[in-house]
Amino acid sequence: MIDKSMILEFFNASPAKTIAEKDLIQRLQIEGDQRHEFKKQLRNLIASGEIVEVNKKRFGLPDQLNLLVGYVQANRKGFAFVVSKHKDRDDLYISPEHLYHAMHGDLVVAQVLRKKSGKLDEGKILRILQRGQNRVIGTYLIQGNKDFVLPEDSRIPYTLFIDEANTLDARPGQIVVAQILVSDEHCRHPEGEIVEILGFPNTPGMDEKIIIQTHNLPATFPQVVLDAADSLSDRIPAEEIQQRLDLRDQCIFTIDGENARDFDDAVSIERLENGHYKLGVHIADVNFYVPEASVLDQEAYQRGTSVYFPDRAIPMFPEHLSSNVCCLREGQDRLTNSVLMEFDPTGKQVAYDIKASVICSKQRFTYTLVRQILKDQDETLRQQYQDFLPSLQTMKDLSELLLQRRVQRGSLDFDLPEPEVVLDIQGRVENILKAERNLAHRMIEEFMIAANETVASHITWMQIPMIYRTHDAPADEKISGLNDFLGSLGLRLQRGNQLHPKDFQKLLHQVRHRPIEHLVNILALRAMKQARYSIKNSGHFGLASTCYTHFTSPIRRYPDLIVHRILKEISQGTGFSVQDVEKQQQMLETIAEHSSLRERAAMEAEREIVLIKKLRFMQDKIGDIFDGVISGVTSFGLFVELREYFVEGLVHVTQLHDDHYHYHEETYSLVGEQFRKRYRIGDSVRVQVAHVDLGRRQIDFHLL
């Protein structure tokens, strides 16, 4: 039986870089009746980019041919990146002249043209394997006798022509979704049909509708999925309670944000007679209600994660399950999986247990409320919640010990503020503030990290395949480029033979409370790779953790649900044959890759909606003057972030009238030719808002 793995194994073992089809057939001993299936599998491998065709009927592996297969991530300024399908490859920068008519979302084969120290490699696109765009979201317009859709996304370099019979009775100026029906290879004159009318541009919620459609997010659940969720009862069968650790009489409570609706984690603590801490992290047992391969499970897999906008969420599960049946509501009995950890007085873990349990949350706390009780010492609140004071204080003490130990091992904490978009009742942006991260946030963060590490180590020790949350060390080229810039500041990232998180930690400590702290934090963060899901345990560089997973949020992250399933298989004593292990690994690898892609899509959508809200917020501030800091420098200008609102805009190099400026790549700076004035990342500047362009997703500033 011919399959893809057999063909790939041959290529991996072959010393030749390329091989002709006829030689491949001969060496694999493909019989005549198998050739049709062989060619079908070979075409599938080419279509997916696992094998590339370099000349007529000659094939090879991309890595061996200095080629990269990945997805185009286009930028509205014209350039793009190719994001590799393989996690161990860095992204490839593609200049506009090397795009080969590729568009955002396309699966392509790209060639590496040149490697640049401290920068992404540069390349060009050779071939488009699959088009990523089959729909266009844009404005329906009529000019003369021409009907067309002007794309809302400026990364799409064409208008879509619509036959009069395919307009769905849309009115000019409305935002629509159009399906591409006909296009040539270069998408120069595509034709389409309108399949959905979203409404007029200024309709409340239109920004969210556009982002949902642009990023192909599932806005609604199929009826069969809603019916499956609605059929679930929040009443727990007595026989199920009998099989679990009953913790309903313990002081267990939740701590979440003010606007949170799905509570999937609760905590408890007690001080033992020997002076040790016993911490309980109790996570909603979603797996009990969502059997593998059920319609709920399949829908959750496709979504991969919940997506959060400033005014709404696109949940992974229907509301009845996420906000009711599995939600750890105050005063309600709920099924959980509990990680019970014992720590000595120094915060070192000395024992643990993982149990299927049932709990009843005694209180729904918010981060703000806990901060008011513990930090602000609000006497009225301390009196009101006096029954919880011992637990809260003990949690604070333990979390500080855990943080101290994590810092000692090299865990990184970039001190960069996150924006919080404040909306009024009509959904308009009222303000943009620095998101609060107080001691309650850090407390829960420490407990979740501890639980995730405990579960990861437990399953790894059992030698059972699982999904890890990994974060690889930065690439050498990134470190080299960072050190080039740090050298201009009199700094250097000191490292041994192998890069360790402590090397970054020492650097961040060196610049703490100095004017360049913000700058160095930004550049160090940019040097980092993106965390991902994997079946291989390569550790988590940012947390300085040798073994890490995601377990604590099964309501909103699919990999967490999978980890809960693995724990259940372990607790039931399910044996794994060699064949079972191989099958499990293949399944988990597919889930890990898909979940990483869905997470990236969600992050892009969340970033873009926040950016749009920022742009709308700045539309009535044309002419206003603000203090800012240079957050980026390119050959075409300076990016400036306003100190007051966490909004970024561009000062184009043509607006620097006092000199002719040249870009110095090694120091991330623009330097005047005649007067040698220098602008670089971290410099404080004063700017005036000149223009806000929603289509280009850009704010233009003038430097004062």
Describe it for me?
It is built from 17 helices and 34 strands. The strands form ten sheets. It has a five-stranded mixed beta barrel. The chain has a five-stranded mixed β-barrel with strand order 9-10-11-13-12. Strands 14-21-20-17-16 form a five-stranded mixed beta sheet, with helices on one face. The mean pLDDT is 92. Residues 623-704 form the S1 motif domain. Its EC number is 3.1.13.1. It catalyses: Exonucleolytic cleavage in the 3'- to 5'-direction to yield nucleoside 5'-phosphates.
Secondary-structure blueprint of this entry?
Elements: H1 4-13, E1 18-20, H2 21-27, H3 35-48, E2 52-55, E3 58-60, E4 67-74, E5 80-84, E6 92-94, E7 107-114, E8 122-130, E9 135-143, E10 146-151, E11 160-162, E12 175-182, E13 191-199, H4 206-214, H5 223-230, H6 238-242, E14 245-246, E15 254-256, E16 265-271, E17 277-284, H7 295-303, E18 307-308, E19 313-314, H8 319-325, E20 333-343, E21 349-360, E22 364-366, H9 367-374, H10 379-384, H11 389-409, E23 419-423, E24 429-434, H12 439-461, E25 468-470, H13 476-488, H14 501-510, H15 517-527, E26 532-534, H16 558-571, H17 578-618, E27 625-634, E28 637-642, E29 648-652, E30 661-664, E31 669-672, E32 678-680, E33 684-693, E34 698-703
Parallel strand pairs: 6-8, 11-13, 14-21, 15-22
Antiparallel strand pairs: 1-3, 2-3, 4-5, 4-7, 5-6, 7-8, 9-10, 9-12, 10-11, 12-13, 16-17, 17-20, 18-19, 20-21, 23-24, 25-26, 27-28, 27-33, 28-29, 30-31, 31-32, 33-34
